[in-house]
Design goal:
- The protein is of the alpha/beta class.
- It folds into 2 domains: about 240 residues, Rossmann fold, CATH 3.40.50.450; about 140 residues, Phosphofructokinase domain (Rossmann fold), CATH 3.40.50.
- It has 15 helices and 19 strands.
- The strands form 5 sheets. The protein has a 9-stranded mixed beta sheet with strand order 5-6-19-18-12-11-8-9-10, sandwiched between helices. The chain has a 4-stranded parallel beta sheet with strand order 14-15-13-16, with helices on both faces. The chain has a two-stranded antiparallel sheet with strand order 1-2.
- The protein is globular.
- It binds adenosine-5'-triphosphate (ATP), 6-O-phosphono-beta-D-fructofuranose (F6P) and magnesium ion.
- The site of adenosine-5'-triphosphate (ATP) has 23 residues, from helix 7.
- Adenosine-5'-triphosphate binds next to helix 7.
- Pathway: Carbohydrate degradation; glycolysis; D-glyceraldehyde 3-phosphate and glycerone phosphate from D-glucose: step 3/4.
- Belongs to the phosphofructokinase type A (PFKA) family. PPi-dependent PFK group II subfamily. Atypical ATP-dependent clade 'X' sub-subfamily.
């Protein structure tokens, strides 16, 4: 399954100007030449580029259709391409003298503990790195005045942490001073910092990289992108997304059972998705339960003959029940009141579209004389706090491996990602240059419309 990437392949929105992705956007920074034989070198001898792996001196093409590549009008060698992920025969850091830090930031996501575990096991068992610490509660773990301790992370500490959801390190929101963060890295002699987080975390990491550069330090900063909303661009799918989406299907099914078991039953489910409705879209495709999906990317009209409420009324009267799934960022234009606030990281605090819809649906059906029983489900936190499923666990482990390989080879200001099933390195600047959205003209939304039978637009 591969969420749509509207406008992807050729362009990213950088500010208000459409920017065609080129070589410079894909160039990965390194701390210096790799002069040390990797402990993994022997295993790499027989490898070559195939459908299943890409060698370090090869590249992964950025465009994947003939029309996109053709529009570049350059020979094959000139096509934009990504550095492949994976182990290198020679590395930058000397494992015996390398000290590593790990931090998790932003909202929870299934698989955070799997990533921590994967990083520690790969570093310790395969590279022989012995000094690994975890910073507690996100970037505030670096700042002395919060008084957070650091956690020694060894294989026996992390062995079974993947059985639990959440992150053993804790997490937080809120910008911290990058100078103070780098002070902490220097105090602890950290050579590699792994940051596990979303767009905010990666922006914070870029600030840290800037200060590292200003101080002339050789510290690698490598990101493992994390977002329950699946809104990081250029990657197949963020880890934990499958788990969260599968969890969401349970609530949608429960809403469907409730709706079908009461006269005029309406099951209403609100799911996470601040700016991107991927969870809502995928979770309704899994089962034939939902009749309507409302997402931030597709504005909808509430009132009037062709509005959502009238459509729903007809649906309830004709079939006796209906199920509505709404992403939290949908329909914000319908929420009146004060200016929305911001959380500690500057993210907009959204109005509660779920409660608004519950009230409006009840009022509308009452006013039309339609008997109704509206059942409201808000499983938001329940879907992101669970342990990763087996698929996501395996995915997290592979991302962690890729991150360790990248960092040991001195790559910095980069995220590891799977893009079209290839593990690649993507510069952080590109990863935060835009958001991944459900494309209202794309295949995913088309599937949602087909599955639910809802109109293309409520207007
Ligand atoms: N613009 C920014 N510049 C520097 N640091 C930032 C910025 N935005 C956020 N951060 C830092 O990144 C951390 C996480 O950011 P945020 O709360 O936005 O979550 P996120 O990483 O985007 O994850 P998610 O959105 O998936 O929950 C914050 O603790 C904050 O210190
Ligand atoms: O309430 P919290 O922990 O700030 O997180 C809520 C937000 O986090 C996200 O899951 C993104 O990480 C959004 O979908 C949601 O709006
Ligand atoms: Mg974010």
């Amino acid at each position: 399954m591969s969420p749509g990437e509207p406008g992807d392949g050729r362009a990213a929105a950088c500010g208000s100007v459409r920017h065609v992705i080129g070589h410079d956007d894909l160039a990965v920074r390194t701390l210096g030449p790799c002069r040390i034989d990797s402990p993994l070198a022997e295993r790499l001898e027989a490898r070559e580029t195939t459908q299943h792996s890409v060698m370090e001196d090869d590249r992964v093409l950025f465009d994947d259709t003939l029309s996109m590549a053709g529009a570049r009008d350059v020979p094959v060698q000139g096509l934009p391409s990504l550095e492949p992920g994976g182990p290198r025969k020679r590395i930058y850091f000397d494992p015996a003298k390398t000290r590593v830090g790990i931090v998790t930031c932003g909202g929870l996501c299934p698989g955070l503990n799997d990533v921590i575990r994967g990083l520690v096991l790969e570093l310790a068992r395969h590279y022989g790195v012995r000094r690994i610490v975890g910073f507690r509660n996100g970037y505030r773990g670096f700042i002395p005045h919060y008084g957070e301790d650091v956690v020694d992370l060894a294989p026996d500490v992390v062995q079974h942490i993947d059985d639990e959801g959440g992150t053993i390190l804790g997490t937080s929101r809120g910008k911290q001073d990058p100078e103070e963060i780098v002070d902490a890295l220097e105090r602890l002699n950290i050579n590699i910092l792994f940051v596990v987080g979303g767009d905010g975390t990666l922006r914070g990491a870029m600030d840290v990289v800037r200060v590292i550069g200003e101080r002339g330090l050789k510290v690698a900063v490598v990101g493992i992108p994390k977002t329950i909303d699946n809104d990081i661009p250029y990657i197949d799918q963020s880890f934990g997304f499958q788990t969260a989406m599968a969890e969401a299907t349970k609530s949608i099914h429960a809403a469907s059972v409730e709706a079908r078991s009461a006269p005029g039953g309406v099951g209403l489910v609100k799911l996470m998705g601040r700016h991107s409705g991927f969870i809502a879209c995928y979770s309704v495709l899994a089962k034939d339960d939902a009749d309507y999906v409302l997402i931030p990317e597709v504005p909808f009209t509430l009132h009037g003959e062709r509005g959502f409420l009238e459509h729903l009324r007809r649906r309830v009267q004709e079939r006796g029940h209906a199920v509505v799934v709404v992403a939290e960022g949908a329909g914000q234009e319908h929420i009146e009141g004060e200016e929305p606030g911001r959380d500690a990281s500057g993210n907009v605090r959204l109005g509660d579209v779920g409660r608004l819809l519950r009230r409006l649906i009840t009022e509308h059906l009452d006013a039309a004389g339609v008997e109704n029983n509206v059942r409201y489900f808000d499983p938001s936190y329940a879907i992101r706090s669970v342990p990763a499923n087996a698929y996501d666990s395996a995915y997290c482990l592979r991302l962690a491996h890729a991150a360790v390989h990248a960092a040991m080879a001195g790559r910095t200001e980069v995220i590891v990602a799977r893009r079209r099933r290839r593990f690649v390195h993507i510069p952080m600047a590109l990863a935060v240059s835009r958001r991944n959205h459900v494309d209202p003209l794309g295949d995913l939304w088309m599937s949602v419309l087909e599955a639910t039978g809802q109109p293309v637009r409520f207007e």
